[in-house]
Design brief:
Blueprint (H helix, E strand, L loop, with lengths): L9 E5 L4 H12 L4 E5 L9 E4 L8 H5 L2 E6 L9 H13 L4 E5 L12 H10 L2 E7 L11 H9 L1 E4 L5 E2 L4 H13 L7 E4 L5 E2 H12 L4 E4 L2 H9 L4 H15 L9 H6 L6 H12 L9
Parallel strand pairs: 1-2, 1-4, 2-3, 4-5, 5-6, 6-9, 7-11
Antiparallel strand pairs: 8-10
């Protein structure tokens, strides 16, 4: 596919400081695109134009949309009904001249499903050029700022209700690479794209790989659905906690035991495996004792 984009217009990245937003911003800039990096604090990112944006403050929408013709959408975190704030913004984006929208959803959420599934369902009726990225669970959940990563660092354990179920965990760098193509290729995908890594792994497999890479013993503790729901409910709204625990239960039943060739097809290269990502990210995080400044 030929990559073309009007460089006088900007790509608006909503959630530009997040796991996929920051990577999408960096890759767009590296490819020579003008980027408006939207976040609640208008955080400056190298090469991007910072702009304040808050899903719950429509007064921030106008400045964010000014001069943008494409938008990457990261839903508000932890909101069980993101459509309530996202759809008004998308109507305004269309009126402001945005003609392509790429939405971050999840492999477990189909069009019309819970949460962001309602936005997915509405997107084709709002924009003639669109894509919905439906990645599997992020590999960075075990290496970055996430409940699992925190539990690994603090307790040497991953706690889930996923049992022995396997997941095609995907690297956030690969999600961003697909997002860039979906945003800037001459032809929009105009479909939803299920993104996975190269293999399906259980959480026991993940624990073993993290143990081997870091040298610290990590285990996977198997929880019941009720235990997982209650654990999450102490950290987030009850409804959202129940939804996440339900996703673990679906994993245990085999819902995420798959891989797809989408990353290879859109980027021209194979997706990264979890061991490579763990070696890239966890070994660096563990490096202060060897003189690393990171």
């Amino acid at each position: 596919m030929t990559v073309t984009h009007d460089c006088s217009a900007a790509v608006l990245v909503v959630g530009a400081t997040g796991t996929t937003g920051s990577r999408t911003t960096a890759q767009l800039i590296a490819a020579g695109h003008r980027v408006k990096a939207a976040s609640r604090r208008a955080t400056a990112l190298p090469g991007a134009e910072p702009v304040r944006f808050d899903w719950y403050d429509p007064a921030t929408f106008g400045a964010a949309l000014d001069g943008a013709d494409r938008v990457y959408l990261v839903p508000p975190v932890g909101d069980p009904d993101p459509a309530a704030v996202m759809l008004p913004f998308l109507h305004r984006a269309r009126a402001a001249g945005v003609h392509r929208a790429v939405l971050l959803s999840a492999s477990a959420v189909p069009a019309g499903g819970p949460g962001v599934g309602a936005v997915h369902q509405a997107l084709p009726g709002l924009f003639s050029q669109w894509a919905v990225l439906r990645p599997s669970w992020f590999m960075q959940n075990f290496t970055g700022a996430h409940l699992h990563a925190d539990s690994i660092r603090e307790h040497g354990a991953i706690l889930t209700a996923a049992g022995d179920g396997r997941v095609g965990f995907v690297d956030a760098d690969d999600i961003a690479a697909v997002a860039v193509r979906a945003l800037t290729d001459d032809r929009a995908p105009n479909t939803d794209l299920v993104l996975t890594g190269p293999e399906a792994l259980s959480h026991d497999d993940i624990a073993s790989i993290v143990t081997e890479v870091t040298g610290r013993h990590v285990t996977h503790r198997h929880l019941t659905y009720d235990d997982m729901r209650d654990r999450l409910a102490a950290l987030m709204p009850q409804e959202f906690a129940a939804m996440l625990a339900g996703m673990d239960r679906a994993i245990a039943e085999g819902a995420e035991d798959r891989t797809t060739g989408t990353v290879q097809r859109l980027t021209g290269r194979p997706p990264h495996g979890f061991r490579a990502v763990a070696e890239r990210e966890l070994s660096v995080r563990a490096a202060p004792e060897t003189g690393s400044t990171r």
